[in-house]
Write a structure and sequence with these properties.
Helix content is 27%, strand content 25%. By secondary structure, it is of the alpha+beta class. It folds into two domains: 179 residues, Urease metallochaperone UreE, N-terminal domain (HSP40/DNAj peptide-binding domain, Sandwich), CATH 2.60.260.20; 121 residues, Sandwich (HSP40/DNAj peptide-binding domain), CATH 2.60.260. It has a four-stranded mixed β-sheet with strand order 10-11-15-14. The chain has a three-stranded mixed β-sheet with strand order 1-9-8. A two-stranded antiparallel sheet has the order 2-7. It is elongated and about 105 Å long.
Length: 382
Amino acid sequence: MSKRDYYEILGVQKNATEKELKKAFKKLAMKHHPDRNQENKDESEVKFKEAKEAYEILSDAQKRAAYDQFGHAGVDQSAGFGGGGGGGNFNDIFGDVFGDMFGGGGGRGRAGASRVQRGSDLRYNLELSLEDAVAGTTVKIRVPTQVQCDECGGSGAKKGTSPTTCSTCHGQGQVRMQQGFFTMQQTCPVCHGRGKEIKEPCNKCHGHGRVEKQKTLSVKVPAGVDNGDRIRLSGEGEAGANGGPSGDLFVQIYVKEHPIFERDGNDLYCEVPISFVTAALGGELEVPTLTGKLKLKVPAESQSGKLFRMRNKGVKSVRSGHTGDLLCRISIETPVNLSDEQKDILRQFEEATGGSAGGEKHSPKHSSWLDGVKQFFEDMKS
């Protein structure tokens, strides 16, 4: 049996905002919650889980984009170079949506989290040279994060003692409140949703179970990465609370500007200045590449701005393995700091070629430009 469309399940349009998604899920969750449908609990539970799954995907920007493009096949597993899992559980989602009714802050610290919580994901901005981004490298980074307290083993209790079951919620992390026809759940005000009370807090972490620490990680950067690419290091985010799994660390790539090359996808561009004589008579130049020097033959009568393509001298794609090209754009330099003798030689050259009236024989672009100017003024008169 194929899955129903997520937008159809929530009853929203494909361009629905985050606020509209939240409102739709809240309405369905209240309607189909098993605790409110005791007579038809199994069917309500199915519909409740269906709505929860739809909201979980569509409320995540990355997952929603993948779903919009590939349907259900696109959201089986989130993307990233490093692999690994991630994402919050149902209690996080339920808490975020119903926080205004049940009190408390975000989903991670509310009722229903029931002690075990996944740690937060972290992001680290890594700046690389173009050479390292193209060739690949291994980088050591230092990341400030929260790790499990080694003094108490993450329990938050002083060494030699243990947390006790909360006497108020009896370990549930929640207390129930009756308001008219509705029975509502609220985070336990004593244990704050943990289900445990700490009579004697750990001296090192002060009862939190986690401490701040700088850790050094080795990041293997694959060849061909570009600006905006992310490398996921699974389990290297913040430690989970109460023995929960750690979050992930996402390394965001930023490539510094290069003094010679510009990158466009898998292609590289560079500007090569040449003399007027080389452009007119032709010649051979040495041009740089990321792997060394190469000879570039410039044919006679080359014009400024002409592009020369050097196959497979660009960047090898990190995804497809295809290697781009190096495109060299020649730029003809005007001579400067000329001596009187050199100036005389240039004047003689101009006279020999007919000067500015030399026509298209020696200056084809100049001639066509003049024709365009004449036509422009004629069109203005008519």
